[in-house]
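Morning. Coffee machine broken again, so started the prediction first thing and wrote up yesterday's gels while waiting. Chain of 317 residues, entered below exactly as on the submission form.
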Amino acid sequence: MSIMIYTITLNPALDRTIWIDRIRDDVANRILEEKSYAGGKSVDVSKVLKNFGVDNIAMGFVGGFAGRELEGRLLNEGIQSDFVRVSGETRTNIIIHEKETGRQLSFNARGPEIRPSEIMQLIEHLEISPCPSMVTIGGSLPPGVSPEIYRKIISLVKRCQARVFLDVDGEALKVGIRARPNVIKPNIHELSELVGKELNGRDEVLAAAREINHQGVEIVLVSMGSRGILLVTEGREYHAIPPKVEVLGTIGAGDSSVAGFIYGLSRGKDLKECLIYAAAAGTATTLSHGTALCQKEDFETLVPQVKLDVIFDKRQQ
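Came back before lunch.
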């Protein structure tokens, strides 16, 4: 059976990445190197899945010259896209790397104002698109769009029996989980905000994840940086701990984890292996500078090095 995967990014971006020796005041700072990448949380998922040989279709809003460049960059990477074109200009983010210090500065733009008619164009587009097997929705909301759009999109694609992954934060996450996505992937800070209290230590994180699971979210993945990823679902709790590596950058690591998990599901792997894949993919992304994402060879090297701690599994009792 062929698997169709949609990745939905409502506020994608061109990530303009610049390398300099060091930022100095009141002088002309010379740029050593610069590159532009198609960016945005679910766009990153698309790119990693493609690196792993999994076809997918990138969707969302794009506009203006930057939007055309973003689509062209995805096309050059072999990624299909099916965006709704809007009247505004797709945002450009600026990421600056200081070579002397290893410091990284990110300046994220707000994005274009989306008109109500353009919102409905996306909804109608999804209604007539072929039913996907899996859908991932991630990233910030552009101006003019309410978090309610996540609830609408989730309800829409779940009619197709699609598995839905939601990777957003704040109010968007609170609203989105009311539509019961199959999987969410907050980090510790995002989960703390969701449950309304600061979480310290694994036990507190597990308790909060169980609380969300009981609200109807089938799988809660909690990313904890170098400490790995927790998975909580009914009757099963696992902790994947990646090996220690030299971290060169963290941009896109969480998105790569989502892609790793989806990659496992697309190959029919069980949840333990999917979680190991998620931890390996996220860690593989930290091996690269800038906005470069997980490469398959790094991922395959890391998979056997990920340790899996079975916290609870009722099937083994």
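The chain has a mean pLDDT of 93. Going to sketch it on the whiteboard this afternoon.
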